[in-house]
Write a structure and sequence with these properties.
The chain is α+β, with helices and mostly antiparallel strands. Helices cover 26% and strands 31% of the residues. It has a nine-stranded antiparallel β-sheet, covered by helices on one side. The protein starts with a helix and ends with a helix.
């Protein structure tokens, strides 16, 4: 028999023996690559309420840096350590993320090769040795109250051939899986906080006063001063001057007030916070003055608080008076995650982020309900300088030429 014929005969025999072995021994050990297929990723994660810390790390392709975000339950409340421990509205959102990882299975093994990590989008965003800027995944870590790891996973691209599935990998391991999961926690600050800053509706606002001015710091005076008092008469808004107004711009202003969204925060000095909560006014301390000036705000000798870019007052039917003062553009001092997030949001919305100083008071004729609301809001606003997008700033800071038809 010729040699090629012998080789073909041996191959056929080998295939036959392999098939026979599978039939005779159906419980034979599968190939190593499929050894854990179908197993649960995180057996320690038995329920969503066990998770008390969530860490999310995304990769910023534009700056080639990892962007960590953290939410944790501390001293009886949810906070965001990456943003100066700002209060987080996180309980339900974190529980949803944890629930998506409970009983999560390694449904399908897709690869055992590190070279495939970029293709599946599961390169660890924290891996400083990886040279590829593309194919970085989102790393999600859940911890218990003691800091123990309950789950740690790198989420990659959605599986194109299996709707509802996503590629996933355990950090430090080569194997990539396709797993059915809806887990996709956000690493954006604004997605984890109370979105309604002022807690007011358009129907509740009866008066708006726009004080436009800018401060000439060299000459120590106000310039470009405009006062625009708007009052509601039923469903109609009027300027005190009697001029006809652009109702579309007024509606846009109302919408911006009631949907005002913050993209970042900075803490105020403790003594400033204490002054605002106890007396509702600011004292002329050096620490407060330096902090205010750095963010575009100034205290006059008679105690009035001024801002670089004017202010807007809104009064409600209950007599609550909100004052929004617009300060400096947010700069990249230290380039914290909060600064990067605010800049990124501002860039996406077509403007530069800006500091906002918010206070609440009660009008002279305010009802008890309004006085109580003003006190509650004062305690809420006293701790923070807020940061808003340039787009919101443009909608709030209207000039006469914008309002008058």
């Amino acid at each position: 028999m010729h040699e090629p014929a012998k080789t073909a005969l041996f191959c056929a025999a080998a295939v036959g023996l392999a098939i026979a072995a599978a039939v005779v021994e159906p419980g034979a050990k599968p190939p190593e690559i499929f050894s854990d297929q179908g197993e649960v990723f995180f057996p320690r994660l038995t329920g969503p309420l066990a998770a008390k810390v969530l860490e999310v790390v995304e990769y910023d392709d534009a700056t080639a840096t990892a962007r960590p975000f953290k939410v944790e339950f501390r001293r009886g409340k949810w906070t965001i350590p990456s943003h100066y421990n700002y209060p987080a509205d996180a309980k339900d959102r974190l529980a949803k993320t944890a629930a998506a990882l409970v009983d999560l299975k390694r449904d399908q093994v897709r690869s055992d090769l590190a070279e495939d990590h970029a293709k599946y989008g599961v390169i660890d965003p924290l891996d400083q040795k990886a040279t590829s800027l593309q194919g970085r995944g989102k790393r999600v870590t859940l911890r218990d109250e003691q800091g123990g790891v309950l789950a740690d996973l790198i989420l990659g691209h959605a599986a194109k051939d299996k709707p509802g599935y996503r590629y996933a990998r355990l950090p430090g391991q080569k194997r990539t899986y396709a797993a059915k999961t809806e887990a996709d926690p956000s690493a954006q600050f604004e997605d984890w906080i109370e979105s309604d800053l002022l807690k007011v509706t358009a129907a509740q606002i009866k008066k708006i006063t726009i004080h436009n001015y800018s401060i000439n710091e060299q000459l120590g005076r106000l310039e470009n001063v405009e006062n625009l008092p708007l009052t509601r008469d039923g469903d109609t808004w009027k300027l005190a001057s009697g001029e006809k107004i652009n109702t579309g711009r007024v509606q846009s202003l109302l919408s911006s007030l009631t949907r005002l969204r913050i993209v970042g925060v900075r803490p105020k000095p403790p003594n400033m916070t204490a002054d605002l909560k106890t007396t509702g006014s600011l004292q002329m301390s050096m620490e407060s003055m330096v902090s205010l000036r750095q963010k575009g705000f100034f205290i006059t000798p008679d105690g009035r608080l001024l801002s670089n870019e004017g202010e807007v007052l809104a009064e409600t039917n209950d007599g609550v008076v909100y004052t929004l003062r617009f300060g400096e553009i947010l700069t990249g001092q230290g380039e914290s995650k909060e600064t990067k997030d605010a800049k990124s949001t501002a860039k996406a919305e077509g403007g530069e982020s800006r500091y906002l100083f918010v206070t609440a008071g009660a009008a002279r004729d305010a009802a008890e309900t309004g006085q109580r609301q003003a006190r509650d809001l004062t305690n809420r606003f006293a701790d923070w300088y807020y940061v808003i997008s340039g787009a919101d700033f443009s909608k709030l800071r209207l000039r006469r030429k914008d309002l008058v038809r």
